[in-house]
Amino acid sequence: MIQVNSVSRIFKDKKKIIQASNQISFTVEKGQVIGLLGENGAGKTTLLRMISTILEPTSGTITFDGIDIHKNPMEVKACIGVLFGSETGLYDRLTARENLLYFAKLYRLSNHEAKNRIEELATRFGMKDFLDRKVEGFSKGMRQKVMIARTLIHNPDIILLDEPTTGLDITAANMFRELIRQLKKEGKTIIFSSHIMEEVKALCESIVMIHKGEVVYNGPIEQLYKEEESEDLNYIFMSRLVRGTNA
């Protein structure tokens, strides 16, 4: 279980103070798929960075199964897989296979485990044709596939995804969505941000809407539909942002 408890994050830019997150709280049960919604600059990526232990909250706590992740970061890093859409995290002079092998070693996979895992992910994401090519010549979609494979290389229990289908063609995006469903069946806990409402509707049980660093809705999608008397998630999203309330 992931528990985000009254988490706030403040950034200082010269003399200006930016409130990126303000008293955010929600719980994610093991095996849930949670959608994180919000306009650009709402604080979604900051929140995911805090959950991944990359950033520390200014105040509040985040726990995994009762463990404070920022007091015990090394204890939880091994069970987290992270993909941020704005970062590649890949080495252009290495092949896709070499990149994945490097990250497998960081997670202390044996040579045998790493080889099998790379082959499995290459097959799953259709990367066999470019697995042994240098990353520097890859298209955005090809890079995204390798980045997703890197995120999953150590078979993490908790997966954090920031705009995961960005840059993928329709076939690859649909394949990735099916992967999310498979990971859910395996009991993985997944939090992902997306601007594609149909994607959220198809994959998520619950959503957390954020506007200007604050939660404006946290709960099951079905409950949101009942409250708004509509199943048009685009309309509901814009309406909630205008109202700026969790009521």
CATH domain topology of the largest domain: Rossmann fold
- Order of helices and strands, N to C? EEEHEEHEHHHEHEHEEHH
Report the span from N to C terminus.
25 Å
Order of strands in the sheet with most strands? 6-7-8-3-9-10
CATH C-level of the largest domain? Alpha Beta
Regions with pLDDT < 50 over 5+ consecutive residues?
A: none
Supply the helix-strand structural class: alpha/beta
- Rounded to an integer in angstroms, the radius of gyration calculated over CA atoms is 18 Å
Tally of DSSP helical segments: 9
Coarse morphology: globular
Residue-averaged pLDDT:
88
Q: Indicate the percent of residues in helices.
A: 25-40%
Please report which band the strand proportion falls in: under 5%, 5-15%, 15-25%, 25-35%, 35-45% or over 45%. 25-35%
CATH homologous superfamily grouping of the largest domain: P-loop containing nucleotide triphosphate hydrolases
GO molecular function, one term: ATP binding
Family: Belongs to the ABC transporter superfamily.
Protein name: Sodium ABC transporter ATP-binding protein NatA
Organism: Bacillus carboniphilus
